[in-house]
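Escalation from tier 1.

The customer reports that the assembly of three entities below gives different structure tokens on two consecutive runs. Tier 1 could not reproduce it. I'm attaching the input and our single run for tier 2 to review.
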Amino acid sequence: MPELPEVETIRRSLAPHLPEDVIAAVPLLDPHAVAEPSPEAIVGIAPGKRVTGIHRRAKYLVIALEAHNLVVHLRMSGRLRLDRPVEDMRYLRAQWNFASGRVLCFYDVRRFGRIWLVDDDRLAALFAPLGPEPFDPALTVAALQDRLARRTAPLKSLLLDQRIIAGLGNIYVDEILFASNLHPRRPAGSLAEAEVARLLDATRSILQAAIANGGTTFDAVYRDAEGRPGRYRSHLSVYGRAEEPCLTCGAPIQRIVVAQRGTHFCARCQS
DNA sequence: CTTTAAACCTGCTGGC
DNA sequence: TGCCAGCAGGTTTAAA
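Tier 1 run:
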């Protein structure tokens, strides 16, 4: 579910509230949701720790504590909710109580989401495989072209690969490829410099617009930490619009499967 | 190393 | 109404 714009929106909805607050207790933690260290260690280490900041790297949310980092990846169906445990309690997987009385709840229907509690060194190791953030100034057209060079896999596959560029997911890759007029099955290494430039521009403008609109909500799954849905869905050009007319040329939007993911594109506009 | 497929989970929708 | 196939916004692991 959540891609970079959704995680960034959650980050922004938590940032005014959690910093300087102190974790008082971890009254509930589904062992299945814990990546590392052990559930017992998380429950033991977290209490007494003060929140020093809320950060995001790719699709990871990082709640920085003193000498530790509480990391959450929502994967497909995870949600974070502040203060109001209004969701189905069957899916409550973790809860943090703060000294102020605030409560942070982690819900996850499909149980793909994961939680880490790691020090700074381990955090760096965890993030080491990730490619650059889309807004990293070091990600120039030449740098992106270099990362795609000589690769024969479909362009969409590499854009979903977090080691190439970090933070994109199925919705935004389809939208970015449409905005770039690039076919999702184009061999990634075949792009000319001008095409990579279009791709990078589209990546940044679409993510920026999605963040400005609080992300994309489908089927009521995604909400920010205060329960607000995203407003970007009405801006989508291809994702979820199979059989509907292309907004540019009127041809029906196609749905195919690429990299085992439903893929939406305009066969007339994208090549 | 690169690429592709399967696995991990649960719930919902549509067809028969 | 009931059952089953197919689908879902992500990542990891195995296999080719």
